[in-house]
Amino acid sequence: MPRVNLQGSSSIVTGGASGIGEACARQLAEAGSKVVIADLNEEKGSQVASEIGGVFVKCDVTKTEDADAAVAAATELGPLRACVNSAGLGAPGRTINRDNEPLDLDKFSFVIKVNLIGTFNVLSRAAAAMAQTEAMDEDGSRGAIVNLASCAAFDGQIGQASYSASKGGVVGMTLPIARDLSVSGIRVNTVAPGLIDTPIYGEGEHAEAFKAHLGQSVLFPKRLGHGEELAFAVMECITNPYMNAEVIRMDGGIRMPPK
Q1: What residues have CB less than 8 Å from 112, skipping those under 6 apart?
Q2: To the nearest whole percent, how much of the chain has pLDDT over 70?
Q3: Which of 36, 181, 227, 238 has the greatest count of CB atoms below 10 A from its CB?
C-alpha cells in the first residue's frame, strides 16, 4: 500500500503563518498540495502563502463563517485532503492568585474557545468538504485531519489550567471524532508537542540563553524541538494510510515539572 499522494490536492493549515503551522504548510506544499494558510496575521500569512504557491485566508478559528471561507478557498484549489489545526494560544493564570482571588472566568473561557472549540469548528467543516470528495483508493480514503495539542495536556504546569484543559480536550476528542468520521474515510490524529523553538521566546542573546536553559530539561536531545520536526510527525499522520485515532507526543521525552 503506497503513501497517500497529495499531488493536485488542497489542504488547510490554521495558524499557518508562523511556527509549527508554517512548517506544516511548507511540507504539505512540497508534497504537492495547494495550501490555504488560515491565520489572523495577514502580513506574515500572505507572505508564506506566496512563497509556497498557496492562498491566504484571514481566519478567526472560533467563527464558523471564517472556517467556511477557508474550506471554500481550499475546494477551489483541488479536492480537500488534509486539514492541520495548529492555531492556538495560552494565557497563564493560577486558579486563585496570591491574594486568593479566583481566575477571571472570561480568561479561562477564551483559551478553551480558541484552542478547543476553534479546533472542532474548523475540523468539522473541513470534514464535511472531505466527505464529498471522490475516494482516493480501494479503502475509501478521502482525507486526514491532524490536530495540535501539547504535552501540557498530560503534564500541565502551575498556571496552565486553561491551556491544559483546552489541549486535554483536543486529546480527548481525537478517538470519538475518528470514530465519527470513519464512515466517510477520514482519519483523525493528534500530535502533542513539547518545548518547541518558536518566535514566542523572542530573539537575541538573552533569548538564546533562555532556550538553551529550557532545553536542558529535555531527556534527549537536550534542546528545544524545531517546527520542522513536528511537521515530520504531522506529515506521517497525513500520508500513512493506516495511521488513525492516535495521539503522539513529540517532546524529546520531557515530562514537565510543576513549574
Answers
A1: 162, 165, 166, 169
A2: 100
A3: 36
Instruction: Report the helix count and the strand count for the chain, using DSSP H and E.
Output: 9, 7
Domain ranges of the chain: 10-199+226-250
Our answer to whether residue 163 is catalytic in this structure is yes
CATH architecture of the domain formed by 10-199+226-250: 3-Layer(aba) Sandwich (3.40)
Could you tell me the pLDDT band of residue 226, with boundaries at 50, 70 and 90? very high
Instruction: Report whether 245 contacts 178 (CB < 8 A).
Output: yes
What does the pLDDT average to over 114-139? 98
Tell me the three state secondary structure of residue 5: coil
Query: Please, which residues bridge with residue 10 across strands?
Result: 34, 80
Q: Which residue has the cell 482519519?
A: 187
Cell numbers at residue 80, please? Answer: 480537500
User: Which pLDDT belongs to residue 201?
Assistant: 81
Query: Is 241 strand, coil or helix?
Result: coil
Q: Which three cell numbers stand for residue 231?
A: 511537521
Whole-number Å distance between alpha carbons of 13 and 83: 6
Please give the single-letter amino acid code of residue 99: D
Cell, residue 244: 488513525
Active-site position among 156, 163, 173, 248: 163
Percent over 90 (pLDDT), the chain? 95
